[in-house]
């Protein structure tokens, strides 16, 4: 998770990871998630961002569109026959799209490598923000750090605002039950702009 103001700081929340007790930011009803992040979480988050946000679509489509456009221009300048040009464009689109997917996987592994040392995480959220405690570090984040969120079948994905360009991942498997997922969804709806499924 991105931290308050974009910089993580260590805090002592006075609880053990995995317990359901303790305080969050101190603003009303809290919801607790306990989970261990995985590479698959970040892959799913980045795929969802690429499909459901303008910035994500631009990032994912720039490579394929520019490559196919450049090849089409080159083919027209050198006078490639139409069948050869069409085959070349299809192959180019396939190769560059595969490369884009590989780049997303690489980015997901890089993001995971940052949070992997945290180990098991315990996140306590309320109306002001969230306190996340890992096995080695704790930090607080206010909802204002994020601009919007999207939801997938397995995740809540928080997207950075003006002070943060990052992606924070909250796996639903970390909830203490279905009511925990509903409560966190309610908190996020009240504090961030939801990007609804289409």
Structure description:
The protein has helices at residues 39-52, 54-78, 82-115, 178-191, and strands at residues 31-35, 121-125, 129-133, 138-142, 146-151, 155-160, 167-171, 193-195. Helix 1 packs across helix 3 and helix 2 (54-78) packs antiparallel against helix 3. It has 198 residues and is α+β, with helices and mostly antiparallel strands. The chain is 44% helix and 20% strand. It has four helices and eight strands; from the N terminus they run βαααββββββαβ. Strand 5 and strand 6 (155-160) form a beta hairpin. The strands form two sheets. Strands 1-2-3-4 form a four-stranded antiparallel beta sheet, covered by helices on one side.
Largest sheet: 4 strands, antiparallel
Number of helices: 4
Distance between the termini: 26 Å
Tell me the radius of gyration.
21 Å
Number of strands: 8
| Order of adjacent strands in the largest pleated sheet | 1-2-3-4
Class from helix and strand fractions: alpha+beta
| Shape, per Cα inertia axes | elongated
Order of helices and strands: EHHHEEEEEEHE
Average of the residue pLDDT scores: 80
Tell me the strand percentage band: 15-25%
Pick out the low-confidence regions.
Answer: 1-23
Binned, the helix content reads 40-55%
């Amino acid at each position: 998770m991105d931290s308050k103001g974009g910089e993580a700081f260590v805090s002592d929340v006075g609880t053990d990871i995995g317990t359901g007790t303790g305080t969050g930011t101190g603003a009303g009803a809290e919801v607790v998630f306990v989970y261990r992040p995985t590479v698959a979480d970040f892959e799913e988050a980045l795929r969802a961002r690429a499909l459901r946000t303008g910035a994500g679509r631009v990032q994912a489509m720039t490579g394929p569109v520019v490559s196919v456009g450049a090849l089409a221009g080159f083919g027209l300048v050198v006078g490639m026959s139409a069948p050869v040009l069409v085959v070349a464009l299809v192959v180019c689109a396939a190769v560059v799209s595969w490369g884009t997917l590989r780049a997303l996987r690489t980015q997901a592994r890089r993001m995971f490598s940052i949070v992997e040392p945290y180990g098991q995480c315990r996140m306590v959220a309320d109306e002001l923000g969230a306190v996340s405690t890992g096995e080695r570090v704790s930090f607080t984040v206010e909802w204002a750090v994020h601009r919007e969120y999207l939801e997938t079948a397995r995740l809540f994905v928080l997207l950075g605002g003006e002070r943060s360009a990052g992606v924070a991942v909250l796996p639903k498997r970390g909830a203490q039950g279905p009511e925990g997922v509903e409560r966190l969804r309610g908190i996020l709806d009240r504090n961030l702009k939801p990007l609804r499924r289409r």
